[in-house]
Design goal:
Chain lengths: ~450, ~250
Amino acid sequence: MSVLVEKADLSLKYTGHYNDVKDLLTEGSSDILNSKRNKAFQDFVMQGIPTRKNENYKYTNLQPQFSPDYKFIHQREKTELDLNQAFRCDVPQLDTHLAFIFNGWYYEENRSVGQLPEGVILESLEKIAIEKPELLEKYAQLANTEEDPLVALNTTFAKDGYFLYVPKNTKIEKPIQLINFLQADKDAFSTQRNFVYIEEGADVKMIMCDHTLNLNSYLSNSVTEIFLGANAHLEYYSLQNQHNKTTSLNSVFIHQEKDSTATTLNSSLHGGLIRNNLKFILNGENAEANLFGMAFIDRKQHVDNFTQVIHAKPNCMSNQVYKNVLDDESTGAFAGRIHVVRDAQKTNAFQRNNNLLLTDSATMQTKPQLIIDADDVKCSHGATVGQIDEEALFYLRARGIDDKKARLMMMNAFAHEVIQQIKVEPLRDRIDELVDKRLKGEVARCHECAYNCEC
Amino acid sequence: MLTIKDLYVSVEGKEILKGINLEVKPGEIHAIMGPNGSGKSTLANVLAGKEEFEVTSGEIIYEGEDLLELEPEDRAKKGIFLSFQYPVEIPGVPMVNFLKTAVNEHRKFRGEKEFTAGEFLKMMRQKEQLLDMNAHLTNRSVNEGFSGGEKKKNEIFQMALLQPKLGILDETDSGLDIDALKTVAHGVNALRTPENATIVVTHYQRLLEYIVPDHVHVLYNGKIVKSSGKELALELEEKGYDWIKQENGV
């Protein structure tokens, strides 16, 4: 069978599936989500499952990931486990408002959220879309289905995920922690759709943790839209710690108004194939965006970070630092696009991607892209792909530190620049420890639940 | 303590050292002088175990053991210390972590209990005084943003912490002003004991006014062409290296 036919078959498979489950998708869902499905589906059909021919997916071929026969989870399933009981986040001193998401669905019996400040809503997206659709007026406005097939497919299938609303001038002291679990009785395809609305002057920290609970293969396709009002502040930490049979596709969109600041930090510790799409729109003066990322991969793992920062208004600042450590035959990619639109004068936009290859067979692709339509801007980008500095290694060894330990010190040092950007101290300490274990080749896990799997 | 016998060393196929013989006894200070490119730094680095230097023949016996069989870290733990000509900056590795790890690796090797953070800091503060080390330097990453003088002081500071049997100072005087030179020399002298030895590799005689050698060797074109007492350094200062070159038929 020719490759072309296979591809067509693959897209047909998803097309056929949509026609089969149309009723299931709209059933119990809100008008607001349902109203987007047909258009999103058409957009998906137009674009198809991304291949390397798609410029934005040049370094990540998703065809093989979409080929298996997954079970789709289009309806809320009862979990046998009580997640509140089964899971204890063992990070010492990390006190959070904790909620679980199971196979993309907001867990109905979340009892660990605790007392949120008045007016704050943390809920199931499906429920809010039905009960308070006025809060979702901006649904699917950031996540453009014409621009990305994964977003289109997500919007086609989207039924649930989490919804967070933080009213004006509300500061949430404790971080909001959302834990994504994947656990199904067979290989499964999960769709998760999230929506965050942070009003003017509000301040929130979010921690997202991704875990797999058994050894089945998973494909998770999530989309998150975040609106940040004027002078609002967000810290968004994402910890990807899934097994090697997982495909994790994440598209996060952040829209910022004036004087707001948003910091995202993505830490990929484990995962089979990870693709993170992150798009910022700086839509008000003096907005500041910080994008940090780090990945530690080995064997045949693949991590691809694709960032876009649109400077739509003058006087904004964006800063990106992405670091990867690649071992064995792992492959990585980073593509970062900075777009300074006309009249967005006095823009400061910086981007850096540093990569450490531990073997000759690991490969890294890095592609900065600056599109600058204003004339009074400061932009810079830089990328390095290298190996451990032998001179520095010898220096450490000449002081009695053995080769292995010296390498470890240097790899930790490499990652440290990103780790130190974590402002939630107990989380930083834990990540520091996990990274250290990861680099030592010990299995680094985020929690000691009973479901630890071996890959 | 150290015996070098007929040592030949090549780098990328080019022969740099051509039959070095040297005997260092406990308590002694040896100066190795010579013009640029004579092989001084190569000798220092071979002793420390730098891999790109290929020993093609000869041997180095250190405390009865074949030194060339040992990894750099094992040489260090057995008491060999190289003060680098160009100390390496290592961003992200905090000085304190680096020093504590190095000291504890030595202690473990000697079968001593590892220092706790508190014990280590206390010991470190004492040694800082010896070298007049500014405490803020130890809060930085290894050598990062250090001035030339600070880097060299930092080398001797590490030597004070690790207390080697054989210290090898590779051009430790280069880039130092006279005050820093005195501080560094003071540090080296304070660390002297009847049991340890020092090899001072230098181009100039200046450092030898402060660290007085028992033996001076002139290395030229990969060979030791002259060995004598400390007066040789003065003679060299006076006559310059051309004298050596002429004597050796260049």
